[in-house]
Amino acid sequence: MISISLCLIVRNEEDVLARCLDSVKGIADEIIVVDTGSLDRTKEIASDYTPKIYDFEWIDHFAAARNFAFGKATCEYILWLDADDIFKEEDQVKLLELKSSLSTEVDTVSMFYNLTQDETGQVINRLRRNRLVKRSRNFRWIGAVHEYLEVYGVASASDIAVTHASTRHDSERNLRIYEQRLAKGEELSPRDLYYYANELKDHSLNERAVHFYGLFLQSNKGWVEDNIAACGKLADCYEALGNQELALESALRSFSYGSPKADNCCRIGYYHLQKGSYETAAFWYESALRAPRQDEAWSMQNTSCSTWLPHLQLCVCYDKLGEWLKAYEHNEIARAYRPDHPSVQHNKTYLEGLLLPAQALEASDLSLTQTAP
Q1: What homologous superfamily is domain 173-309 in, according to CATH?
Q2: Which residue range or ranges hold the Glycosyltransferase 2-like domain (predicted)?
Q3: What residue ranges do the domains of the chain occupy?
Q4: Measuring CA to CA, which residue among 87, 186, 196 is closest to residue 132?
Q5: Which of 106, 207, 240, 318 could form a disulfide with 327 if both were Cys (CB 3.0 to 4.6 A apart)?
Q6: What is the Cα–Cα distance from 230 to 263, expressed in whole angstroms?
Q7: pLDDT tens-place string over residues 287-317
Q8: What single-letter DSSP state applies at residue 87?
């Protein structure tokens, strides 16, 4: 059985830290908590779980803080989390099984990162991240913001999931760090251009986001999955700015980097739906359902675009085309995913109002035919 050091960097996490640490109780052999300037009870709460609490002066650099935390670990493997992450019970069981069975030949283990869920608990956004790494490899974190762990060697992909369960978020922090770097005259790497554009988009600064997504794509140095995602996000920015033609162009541009992704097919479908081109829209929503699932992808995946959402939109398309039975069938598939969604419930009532009288009439006609002399 391997031994595990859990490493966290924290700041003002009194509302979530205990929940995080409770989820690894009996799994982590050592807990390293690096505090970057808490003013609340974070360190007091941490002391109930570990004596290994260290201060690190915050220098607007996440990789520096994480590398400091990794440097304090003493076990064979290092597991990292954020304070607002948890392992659900089923994943705690899987993690214990992994701990007892993992070969020491493995250098890094990736896990799912479930970022958002719907009202039924189904995962909407997820990706993979390297979570458990061999300490002797001395892997390093890179990047002031949206940092990543540079790994190599023998890798294993686990079906264990870390669940992000945030109760709040400093939405200005990352944007502020990027703005400060630019103010100092620092040149952003292609990866930073992409993530800076994301921050701008998240703050509805769409015109600036368009500019930096453009710079990122023009660099021709981005990871292919980021290129595809940037095209989709660029389309969303143009949509927000009221330029539907450029939104369509951006979604189509994603195909130049790889096979069609479900989310971009949905964007194209929405364009045609808004234009009243219902057959064309239906084609693209069907394409979203046929697009290869990206369950093992390292990039962000919006599972809505490959499950219930295309079916909901196909319901609209086929209703407009007068094919109410097909519309009803697609709405029922969407209802299997999202039974309480208000649009799904409305569609069900509306379509049954159309279909049931027609079915009753057909049954009446059939009866008259059967009894005719």
Answers
A1: Tetratricopeptide repeat domain (1.25.40.10)
A2: 5-97
A3: 4-164, 173-309
A4: 87
A5: 318
A6: 12
A7: 999 998 765 666 778 889 999 999 999 999 9
A8: -
pLDDT in tens, 55-90: 999 999 999 999 999 999 999 999 999 999 999 999
Give the distance from CA 364 to its chain's centroid.
52
First-to-final CA distance of the chain: 83
* CA dist list (Å): 137 to 5, 33, 77, 102: 14, 21, 10, 16
Query: Which pLDDT does position 359 carry in this prediction?
Result: 62
- For 228-266, letters b (16+ CB in 10 Å) and e give bbbbbbbbbbbbeeebeebbbebbbbbeebeebbbbbbb
pLDDT at 63: 97
The pLDDT value recorded for residue 119 is 76
- Give me the amino acid identity at 175: L
Residue 105 DSSP class? T
Question: Which CATH homologous superfamily contains domain 4-164?
Answer: Spore Coat Polysaccharide Biosynthesis Protein SpsA; Chain A (3.90.550.10)
Mean predicted lDDT score pLDDT of the chain? 92
**β-sheet bridge partners, residue 34:** 9, 54
